[in-house]
Every structure is written in structure tokens, then in C-alpha cells.
Amino acid sequence: MRISEASALALATRLLEEHDAPHDHAALQARVLVTAEMKGHPSHGLYRLPRLIERIERGVIDPQTKGTQRWRADAVLEVEGSSGFGPVVAMAAIERLAPHIPDLGIGLVAVRNANHLGMLAHYVEAIAAMGFVGIALSSSEALVHPFGGTRAMLGTNPIAIAVPTAEEPLVLDLATSLVPMGRIHHHAATGRPIPEGWARDAAGNPTTDPGRAKAGAIAPFGDAKGYGLGIAMELLVAALAGSALAPDVRGTLDSQSPCNKGDVFILIEPSLAPGLPARLSTYLDAVRASPPASAGEPVLVPGDRARRRRAAASRNGFEIDQRLWEDLNALSRPRILAFEGQRS
């Protein structure tokens, strides 16, 4: 079925408010989920909302806190997340640090013990909109096997980068695993097999069964390269945030455990070289205009596809599993919401 952005935001915000989240916290968390849907990443979208609500009910999310911030150095803001919503804790810290960046040149936020962030693109896009280069890193439970291994020892350890230009920023958002674990869970929830090569089961054997993959390990992207980047991110986040390492991380995929992963955000003042934003935009346009490998499939730069999907979803709505939408409606305490859209 197809629903509108406004309907999705209204339902998600109201559900969170009904579970004791202040309006601004609920609206921000809802926005992160709905934007993931609109960009074509339902594994990070409304599928996660029932678990967020269950985590509030179990007391492992505090929907009212923004965490506790402390200046560790002039350019380093340390945050104890105190089990708050990941987006709320992160954006509160980013917004506190941002006014200092023109004087500092560079600054860093290190967060521990906040809940799942969702897509990291949200944060670096916000940083780029402030006029800064943004880098975001996050850690997770042990979900990825090392290159040459079979047991999950690393997190999916995503990284996102945004560079402002004269037009839209360059936005890169990727996990160091072949796929995020959320996609495995989404395949399991929708009863679809996963492609070969994505994961191994608990015994270390390749599998296309998402249920077996959930108990096993995801492959690193690019074999040794993804593994190397992933383990570097593992240590970097733990070293900066003082957070747990992957085998001891809990709370991003379950409903019972306090979340103890780490997040790092870096804000950088770009060069003031004359005409630099325009030069960056011109370069990206030249990349887009370069000869495509397949006719009719133009070259894109990171962020293009997600922006196009989001724009189309804003105009026309987006597809969502009908059962999920009905389940979300059933979670509402008033249990009344107009059913809108059409079935596909």
C-alpha cells in the first residue's frame, strides 16, 4: 500500500508522544524513521517503531532525556546518552557544538549509551546544512565476521560523510558490512530469502535464510577492505566515546537491553578559498556527465539516488507493507487513524 509522508509522520509522532516522548523528541525520532522509508531503506524505517515503543515500555529508552553533555576539551563534547533516543541525543549535541566551529575550525562529539541512530545520513546532512563538513560514525553489536573468519566479531560500523557545495551536498552513507543487519531483519519480517553471499549461519555456513543469518554473521563489504575499515572504525569509536566493543554491545536490535554502543560526529569548517563551493559542484556535475557503462543509466554521485527517491516519495507517497501499517495503527492508544492511500 502507499501512504503519504504526512500520514506516516503523524502516526509515528503520535505513537511516541503516547509513550511519554515530548513532542519535539517524538517528531525528530519519527522524522528519522520516515525519511529512511522515503529514501528506500525500510530496514531503518517504520519497521523499527514497534521495537522503539517496546523499549520505552521496558524502561530501556528514556524518551525525555537529551543526555548529559560535558566539554572534555575545547573542541570535544562528550555525551552520556542515558538511554535517550539516538537522534535526540545526537542532534542536541551537534547543535551545541556547531556555534563553536567557526572559531575552532574542527570539533567532535563523542556519545555513548544512546539508542539507535537510524540512517547516519540524517546527521551529516544536518551538519552540511549548517555549512560544515560532517562525518558520522557508529558502532553496533557483533554482527560481522572478519575476513577469513565465520564468527561475528565486529559491528556493522557505518560511516557517513557530507561535504557542502554550491548546490546539494555530497552525501555518502554506508555500512562496513556488506549489508546492514536491519536489512536481514527486514527480509525475515517479510518472509523473503536473502541473496547468496550476504551472511553465514551460526555454524559458519553460507545461508540465504534470514532467520539463520540473524543468528550468524554478515560478510564485510569488499572482503579484506571492508573488514579493515570496519575494525578500524570499531576501535576508533570505542577509543573516542569510551563505549563497548562489538562483542559486548547490546540494545540496537533487541527490546530488552540498554543500548551501550558509541557514536562519533565530526564537524569541520571548510576552506574559505574563493569559489570553492562552485568548483566542488562543477566537479560533481562533470562526474555525473561522464560516459556511463550502460546506456540509459547515467552516472550518479553519492546522495543522488536517495534525494530522488525522497523527492518522489514527498510528491507521491511511498510503499509500505500493509500488515506493518495495520500493526502500527493498532499500537495507538486511541486505535483510530484514517486509512489512506491505495494498495499496490
From TrEMBL:
Keywords: Oxidoreductase, Plasmid
Record's protein name: Ldh family oxidoreductase
InterPro entries tied to this protein: Mal/L-sulf/L-lact_DH-like_ah, Mal/L-sulf/L-lact_DH-like_NADP, Mal/L-sulfo/L-lacto_DH-like_sf, Malate/L-lactate_DH-like
Pfam families linked: Ldh_2
Family: Belongs to the LDH2/MDH2 oxidoreductase family.
